[in-house]
Amino acid sequence: MAPVKQQKGGRPVRSCIKAASPIGRRQGTEDFPFTLKIWALAHQIPPGHVSTYTDIAQAIGKPKGLRAVGHALARNPLLEVIPCHRVLTTAGRIGGYGGSKTDPKRLQRKRELLASEGVHFDPDGICRVPKWHDFKDTTPQQLRELQHRVDQAAAKTTAQDRD
C-alpha cells in the first residue's frame, strides 16, 4: 500500500493504487541533470513521429514541467542526435526551434525537417499525426553515454572557437 498522504484540510488519505514510476525517477538516475533526462527522452522519438512538451514532462515525472522541457530542448547541443524538432506543443503546433519561438527562418527549418520525415501540417499550422509517447525507461548507462556525447560536442565547439 502507498504511504499516507495529506489531503487538503489535513485529513490523512491512503492510496492503494501504485503509480507507474516516471522515467526520470528510475533507480540510479537521480544524480543526472534534469536537462540530460529530457534530451534522452527526445532522443527516443523516431523519424516520422512527433511528441509534445507535455508528453515528455509527464514521462519524466514532472507533468507541469513543460516549460522546463522547452528550455532544455532549446539548449540542445546535438541536433543530429537529439531530434528536438520532433517535439511540438500539445495543440500540435511548432513551439520553437533553435532557442527561438519567433525567428521565422528557424521555425521554417523545423517545419522542413519534419516534412523531410513525412510529418506535415494542415493549413492552420497544426500537425494531425497521432502523437508518439512510447517512451522507454532510460538507464544510467544510457544517460552516461549521452552525457559523454554532449561533453564531446562541447569540447569540439570550444576547440573550434579557439581556432
Number of strands: 4
Can you give the helix content as a percent range?
Answer: 25-40%
Q: Hey, roughly how much beta strand do the residues contain?
A: under 5%
Strand order of the largest sheet: 1-2
Morphology call: globular
Main sheet, how many strands, which sense, barrel? 2 strands, antiparallel
Rg, nearest Å:
18 Å
CATH architecture of one domain: Orthogonal Bundle
What is the average per-residue confidence, as pLDDT, rounded to a whole number? 82
Show unreliable segments.
Answer: 1-27
Classified in CATH, the superfamily of one domain is Winged helix-like DNA-binding domain superfamily/Winged helix DNA-binding domain
- CATH T-level topology of one domain: Arc Repressor Mutant, subunit A
What is the compact description of this entry?
This is Methylated-DNA--protein-cysteine methyltransferase. With 163 residues, the protein is mainly alpha-helical.
Describe this structure in words.
The protein is mostly helical and 163 residues long. It has a domain at 26-133: Orthogonal Bundle (Arc Repressor Mutant, subunit A), CATH 1.10.10.10. 38% of the residues lie in helices and 5% in strands. It has helices at 34-43, 53-59, 66-74, 104-116, 140-162; strands spanning 5-6, 12-13, 51-52, 87-88. A hairpin with a 5-residue loop joins strand 1 and strand 2 (12-13). Helix 1 crosses helix 5 (140-162) and helix 2 (53-59) crosses helix 3. Mean pLDDT is 82; it is low at 1-27.
